[in-house]
Amino acid sequence: MPKLLLAEDNDFSRELLTRRLENAGHQIIAVANGREAILAARQYRPDLILMDLEMPVMDGRAAIRTLKIDPHTYRIPIIVVSAHMAEEIIAATYSDGCEAYEAKPVIVSRLLERINETLHALSTTPRQPKLSLAPDAPATPPEIS
Questions:
Q1: What percent of the chain has pLDDT over 70?
Q2: Which residue ranges make up each domain of the chain?
Q3: What is the distance between the alpha carbons of residues 72 and 91, in angstroms, rounded to a whole number?
Q4: CB–CB of 121/99 below 8 Å?
Q5: Per residue in 47-61, pLDDT tens?
Q6: How large a percentage of the chain has pLDDT more than 90?
Q7: 11-48, pLDDT tens digit by residue?
């Protein structure tokens, strides 16, 4: 049973997606912001992360950048699930390190297909850490507490 981390600040959306993904056979760890996503990824080492972009405390893009430079989490694939559909935002999230981008409102069957594709690709492709995201990116991940 694949273990997924869902980072979504909207309670209704988080609960609905959790139920739908659990019904599809996934174990779900649900959190409400990017900071919690980083802590949960470090603690539970999920097989895949579903990340909203617009969240309180720490947004999804900042969380993605932090996860992709952390030696304990850089291998975890991330699928962004967001209502933001501007090309520059989508391109930026891929540059940050996400593997896929799904639009809201979520079509669960399509999301499940994307999850399966991403997990399959992970099992066949070795991953390297993303050590430098920008000239001012830190060499080591920041401490999150």
A1: 84
A2: 3-124
A3: 25
A4: yes
A5: 999 999 999 999 999
A6: 80
A7: 999 999 999 999 999 999 999 999 999 999 999 999 99
The whole-angstrom separation of Cα 6 and Cα 14 is: 7
Report the C-alpha gap between 130 and 11 in whole angstroms.
Answer: 31
Sign of the torsion angle spanned by Cα atoms 54, 56, 61, 63: negative
Residue position matching structure tokens 């090309």: 87
pTM of the model: 0.85
- How many Å apart are CA 140 and CA 120, to the nearest integer? 29
Read off the tokens for 63: 């969380």
Q: Are 10 and 32 in contact (CB under 8 A)?
A: no
Beta bridge partners of residue 3, listed in sequence order: 27
Residue 56, classed as helix, strand or coil, is coil
Is domain 3-124 in CATH 3.40.190.10, yes or no? no
What is the rounded CA–CA span in Å between residue 57 and residue 74?
21
Measured CA to CA, the distance from residue 25 to residue 35 in angstroms comes to 26
